[in-house]
Specification:
The protein is α+β, with helices and mostly antiparallel strands. The chain has 2 domains: 13-90, no CATH class; 96-176, Gyrase A, domain 2 (2-Layer Sandwich). Helix content is 60%, strand content 19%. The chain has 4 helices and 4 strands; from the N terminus they run H-H-H-E-E-H-E-E. The chain has a 4-stranded antiparallel β-sheet with strand order 1-2-4-3, covered by helices on one side. The relative contact order is 0.07.
């Protein structure tokens, strides 16, 4: 075994000086931080003692500005809520001009329409013609639409009568949308 092996580290003079410098810098930094905090507190107390109304006035001004923005925010919230509600209603609403135009397109030209009523869920069409073929074409067209579930879901022939004085057939059809 060697007698020259030393497991203990000897402290260098340079490392001791560096450690002292670090401790000194840390102490100075903490001292400056405390001094800045103390100066800020003293300045605040002096301002409050010299002119206490300016702080309150500034506080009231800031609160007034905030309340103006709150009123605007409430108005914007109400408006956005109304817009969202209107959009929901418009999405659930049926497009009546499209429904009526597509139904009128299916009505034969030689079948004059007396009434066309479109309610929320039903459509009633009544008309008269001298020919049963025009009435048959109307019923075929509407039955095809109901079969394809294009616009109407079901079709009911409400009445089919012959008016002898006019020499014309009268038809009334009810459809469910």
């Amino acid at each position: 075994m060697s007698a020259n092996i030393n497991l203990l580290l000897h402290a260098d003079e340079e490392s001791l000086k560096q450690n002292r410098k670090k401790k000194l810098f840390n102490l100075i930094a903490v001292g400056l931080l405390m001094a800045v905090c103390l100066i800020a507190i003293v300045v605040f107390i002096l301002i409050k003692a010299v002119n206490p109304e300016s702080i309150r006035k500034q506080q009231e001004d800031v609160l007034g500005q905030i309340s103006q923005f709150q009123n605007r925010q409430v108005k914007l919230l109400i408006l956005s809520n109304r817009i969202e509600t209107a959009e929901k209603i418009l999405k659930t609403r049926r497009d009546l001009p499209k429904i009526t135009s597509s139904l009128l397109a299916k009505i034969p030209s030689d079948l004059p329409v007396d009434t066309l009523e479109v309610n929320g869920k039903t459509v009633m069409i009544s008309g008269q013609s001298k020919s049963l073929s025009a009435i048959g074409e109307l019923i075929d067209n509407l039955t095809d639409m109901a079969r394809r579930k294009e616009i109407i879901k079901s079709l009911t022939l409400s009445s089919l009568t012959f008016d002898g004085s006019k020499g014309a057939y009268q038809v009334s059809v009810t459809s469910e949308l």
